[in-house]
Fold this sequence. Notes:
The protein has a 5-stranded parallel β-sheet, with helices on both faces. The protein is elongated, with a radius of gyration of 21 Å. The protein has helices spanning 2-12, 15-32, 37-55, 58-69, 94-100, 110-120, 143-153, 170-184, 198-207, 235-257; strands at 82-88, 124-130, 161-164, 189-194, 213-217. Helix 9 (198-207) links the parallel strand 4 (189-194) and strand 5. The chain is α/β, with parallel strands linked by helices. The chain has 10 helices and 5 strands, in the order H-H-H-H-E-H-H-E-H-E-H-E-H-E-H. It folds into 2 domains: 2-69 and 233-257, no CATH class; 82-217, Rossmann fold, CATH 3.40.50.620. 52% of the residues lie in helices and 11% in strands.
Amino acid sequence: MFFALSKVADLLVAPLTWALLLCAAAAILALRGRRGSSRAAAGCILVALLLLSAFSTEAVANALFRSLERGVVSSFDPRVTYDAVLLLGGLLDAEASESSGMPDYTDAVERLLRTYELLRAGHARSVLISGGSTDPRVREAVEARVLARQLEAWGIDPSHIVVEDRSRNTRENALAAAALVRQRGWKKLLLVTSAYHLPRAEGCFRAVGLAFDSLPVDFRAHDPKRFPSGVQPRAENLSRSTFALHEFIGRWVYRQRGWSLP
């Protein structure tokens, strides 16, 4: 039920959805033709345009990601040989991979690359890959399995790869990983995920009683003083803003439900 509701929430937190609803409200007001309706309809259209314009700028998208990544630090200790890297899914385009028959990765692929580097350099003995399919139409491109095959193709011994292919969100990642960690007796753990996602992931893994170090990767914000952000609207920035808003809502919901600890 929660998974289904989260998909509805994805739609509701999108600035594009807000703008479309405002445009629909403007159309209804215009059709009524009552006194003052035209002014209210124009106001709805204006607010819709302002919302789309603002969230489509690099400045707003970057500011949202800077807020998400604020305070994120690495506790990775290169002197330690970790029992396992906890690699969280969210970096595979499952639909594209299923269609092409080849792995198709998203911007979060650095999670996989850094995990491979850690294993190859001997900083970790094993990896636990956590991530199932969020689309019932996908049969072959189940994320954890695809990532496991990728690591094997790069030369990682299959006996050092543990696959958890049922979880669909960060809460389920943590629950499934905790069971496997205790089953295998791992003590030294390193959590690897994107910087914007790390606070929620850390909270979830703390909530299931695991102790771990963290390695944030895939930083998406930049310093606007060094690299001034543009203000021209772009669809890419609207997508980034929507993604960031989803993460803000996710953090709030997880804390309210007790799934994520500070």
